[in-house]
Specification:
- By secondary structure, the protein is an alpha+beta fold.
- It is 26% helix and 18% strand.
- An 8-stranded mixed sheet has the order 7-8-16-13-18-11-10-9. The protein has a 4-stranded antiparallel sheet with strand order 12-17-14-15, with no helix packed on it. The chain has a two-stranded antiparallel ribbon with strand order 1-4.
- The chain is globular.
- The chain starts with 24 loop residues before the first helix and ends in a 12-residue tail after the last strand.
- The relative contact order is 0.19.
- The structure holds 2-oxoglutaric acid and fe (ii) ion.
- The site of 2-oxoglutaric acid has 14 residues, from strand 11, strand 13, strand 17 and strand 18.
- Pfam families: 2OG-FeII_Oxy, DIOX_N.
- One of its GO terms (molecular function) is oxidoreductase activity.
- This is Fe2OG dioxygenase domain-containing protein.
Length: 481
């Protein structure tokens, strides 16, 4: 998803299933009930895992009926024919009861809500940069908005789009995002302190303070080996470590994650070879000028009006028709990319399932909800060396994804903002950095952080891969636990 998205230090109110504070009895009961039935990685990958089945039937106290009555009273407010059609189709499919939420959502009523209409520049592109995200939002919902650049100039992981000729409509508790050209209604309801963020000027001042100390602390490490060996107590420890990392920082380093170190090294090496090609070769794999396709695999460069300095090759799902533009050189680049994509998808499934437990959701809930993998995106990135003119590779931002994954070469430069200080996410060979994106931040009711991060350039080129596990389609994104 757009390169990256995170939320800056929103006030965090620990809840029963997330807080470091004493957990409720129900939280502990649920944990005890779920742990013995955690699926193995092989089970997780099997089609159909998730809904119903063994785990759910053994944990009757965890039916989705326990979830809050999410959006029960909400109404979808169509803003354009495409959205109306999408919503109506969904309502037809679901017999008016919605889908994926145990029939709790009533989506049958299609009527315009009393929404503020903001004129907005065209074309619209939802960006995750703070200044953009604040555009057109009515004071409670800062995190999504539309704006402003031709799609060819988009940040590699930005992929929420808004129709060019539609005004942005927002209401106090509802955001509308466009995902890959399909409008997705995003309901943001009762997020704790969502509208009480520090004023943006305060945040900016704090972040740009010249005497800001650099924190040398390392990212929390989560060892995923137990999920491959079936070690129950190891799985419980890793789940707890992940939950704590998501709650406090929104970033962690995954080790023993199942993506072969050799594959990551090969992909990085081949991408370095690709980026070292002459520009005239690289642009051949760029989408055609002025293409309106929201997501087309291929080469691109940082938007010229930004201080950012990077180039990228975007890969969509290997079987997806959006992979129209693919580098043929260097040999093996495509294969390495596709292998990485597949392995990262497996890792995404695993981590999503662990996060499902971390959030105290019914087994398989997130997998059922987020069951369309067609718009996950992988981006090979090369950051230019720093110069006297600047050292920002990728400006501070938060990921709009559900979950993001990064592996990198040994150069370094990725930094995570915590309490006003930038924490370097140092390269550690073989590890993968995982961070929570905006979607999970909302689903967790702000209990998980979608941290602000950036890439600072170094004197040499830096290479990395980002994989953005997204939510596709007209999914409602709203607080769950
Ligand atoms: O290249 C990196 O290390 C991070 C990239 C990133 O944050 C993004 O693409 O969203
Ligand atoms: Fe990012």
């Amino acid at each position: 998803m757009a390169t990256v998205a995170a939320e800056a230090n929103l006030a965090h109110a620990p809840g029963p299933s997330h807080g470091g504070a004493p957990r409720s009895r129900s939280w502990r009961r649920r944990r005890r009930a779920r742990s013995p039935t955690r699926p193995t990685v092989a089970e997780l990958r099997a089609p159909g895992h998730g809904s119903g089945g063994r785990r759910r039937s053994r944990n009757r106290s965890w039916q989705s009926s326990e979830l809050p009555a999410m959006a029960a009273e909400s109404k979808v407010s169509p803003v354009c024919p495409a959205m109306t059609a999408a919503v109506e189709a969904d309502v037809r499919r679901s017999g008016g009861g919605g889908r994926g939420w145990g029939g709790r959502r009533r989506r049958g009523e299609l009527q315009p809500a009393n929404m503020a209409v903001q004129p907005s520049p065209t074309p619209y592109l939802v960006k995750r940069r703070r200044r953009v995200l604040e555009y057109g939002i009515d004071g409670r919902c800062r995190r999504a908005a539309a704006l402003s650049q031709p799609t060819n100039d988009m940040n590699p992981s930005s992929f929420f789009f808004w129709p060019r000729d539609q005004p942005l409509r927002v209401s106090p508790n509802r955001l509308l995002l466009c995902d890959g050209g399909i409008i997705a209604p995003v309901l943001v309801r009762s997020i704790i302190d969502f509208g009480n963020e520090h004023s943006s000027s305060t945040v900016r001042k704090k972040r740009r303070s010249p005497d800001m100390a650099t924190n040398s602390g390392l990212l929390p490490v989560v060892d995923l080996a137990p999920f491959f060996t079936g070690d129950e107590s190891g799985m419980a420890r890793a789940t707890e470590a992940m939950r704590e990392a998501c709650r406090t920082l929104g970033f962690f380093r995954a080790v023993n994650h199942g993506v072969p170190t050799e594959l990551m090294a090969r992909a990085l090496e081949l991408s370095a070879k690709f980026f070292a090609l002459p520009d005239e070769e690289k642009v051949k794999v760029r989408p055609v000028e002025r293409s309106q396709a929201p997501l087309v695999a291929g080469y691109g460069l940082h938007p010229p009006h930004l201080v950012d300095r990077y180039e990228y090759v975007r890969t969509c799902h290997p079987r997806h028709e959006l992979n129209l533009y693919y580098p043929t050189e260097p040999a093996g680049f495509r294969e390495a990319n596709e292998e990485c994509y597949a392995k990262l998808t497996e890792l995404g499934l695993l981590i999503q399932d662990i996060l499902n437990d971390c959030m105290g959701l019914p087994p398989g809930f997130l997998k059922n909800y987020n069951n369309d993998r067609s718009l996950d995106v992988m981006v090979a990135l090369r950051y230019l060396p720093s110069t006297d003119e600047g050292e920002i590779g990728l400006s501070e931002h938060e990921d709009g994804s559900c979950i993001s994954f990064v592996f990198q070469d040994g150069v370094g430069g990725l930094e995570v903002l915590k309490d006003g200080q930038w924490i370097p996410a140092e390269p550690v060979p073989g590890s993968i950095i995982v961070n929570i994106g905006d979607v999970l931040r909302v689903l967790s009711n702000n209990k998980f952080k979608s941290a602000t991060h950036r890439v600072v350039r170094k004197p040499v080129h830096r290479h990395s891969f980002g994989f953005f596990w997204s939510v596709q389609g007209d999914k409602w994104v709203e607080p769950l636990p």
